[in-house]
Every structure is written in structure tokens, then in C-alpha cells.
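Hey, resending since the last one bounced:
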Amino acid sequence: MDNNNYDPNVNSVPPMPEGIPPMPQTAAPAPQQQYAAPQAQAAAPAQPADKPMIYSIMAYILIFWIVGLVMEPEKDMPYVKNHVNNGLIIFIAELALTIVGFLLGLISGVLAGIISGLLGAVILLFIVLGIMKAVNHQTFEFPFPFLANLQIIK
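The C-alpha cells again:
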């Protein structure tokens, strides 16, 4: 082999320097033992006992309180009725806040932003508290007497 003819700009392997023995050929590695991947267990479908909780949670999400209002037989359960009623009250409060915020925005954008932000935070707090109570299978009553006694859904 002539070491003087190696050009590093050409895509070729450089010659082995003299005096270094070539690397011995190794046998192919032993095949890895194949293990069967554990089978993922499918999530259990919602049990009938979970449906009231799901409908109660949905009552606090925008207009989904309608689902708990129409589903049989859960619509007659006091637990579901409580959360659907609260979800409806919160939905009406959200609509009212949107209208009031818009009207205040016509007068003063800063005032509308402050009031809408504060009332929006209170509504979000009620939504979170209601969902937490629904998950724990408890009823939720608003802390304000005028809201706690309000029953839209009988």
C-alpha cells in the first residue's frame, strides 16, 4: 500500500498505518432474548355508579348542564339535580357577566376589565369548588344566601 496517494477529500477509507495489526473479526452478537411486551389492560368502562358524578362534573362546563338535566334516571337524583342547578346558575351568571362587561366596555374599557376580571375569578372559583364537590360525591351550596336558596331546577 502506498500511503502517499491518500486524498482526504475523496470519500474513501484511509489506509491502515504500517505496524498496526488489523482488528480481528468478531462474531455477530448473540440474538437478544425476545420478551413479550406486557399487554396493556383496557380502561374499565364507566360504571353506572360513575354516571351521576360525570353528569355532575359536566354541569359546571359551559352549557353541558343540559346533559344532567335530560339523562334518565340520573336527572331525578338529588345529587345530580344540585349540581345541574348550580351549573345553570353559574351559566346564567357567565352570560350576565358577558353582557355587563360589554356594556361597561362601551363606557370605560378599564372599568369593564377590572370588574369582569374580578367577577370572572369568582365564577371560576365556584366552578372549581363545584367540580371538587362533584368528584367527592357531595352536594355544593353557594356561600351567598341569595344564591344558596335559589332553586331553578326543582
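Residues 17 and 144 are 89 Å apart (CA to CA).

Sorry for the duplicate.
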